[in-house]
Amino acid sequence: MRSIEISDRKLDRLNELAVMLTTNAEYDRLLHTVQRSWLRSNTIEETVEQLPQVSGLLSLKPEVGPAICESFTWVDTFLKG
Asked: Among 74, 61, 72, 8, which Cα is nearest to 30's?
């Protein structure tokens, strides 16, 4: 239970950071933060919970939205073997 609470707190902080970086138009830092966060995810569920962090990038480059969706399908197919 404690690890879930820590994860939830960490997720909240990462989402707050993403909003701050978007507000300040620090898109390079936002991209780096999102990439690092996703690389450290252990499950697809964790990654999906982090999707709000991407909203600032999607508004800047909406064409990457479909690629993100497709990547989840690719990973799911890959993991199922």
From this structure: 61
Q: What is the pTM of this model?
A: 0.73
45: exposed, middle or buried (C-beta count within 10 Å: 0-12, 13-18, 19+)? exposed
Alpha carbon distance 3, 36 (integer Å): 20
Q: What is the pLDDT along the chain (81 residues), one digit of tens a residue?
A: 445 544 788 889 999 999 999 999 999 999 999 889 888 888 778 888 888 888 888 888 889 889 888 887 887 788 787
Residue 44 contacts residue 75 (beta carbons within 8 Å)? yes
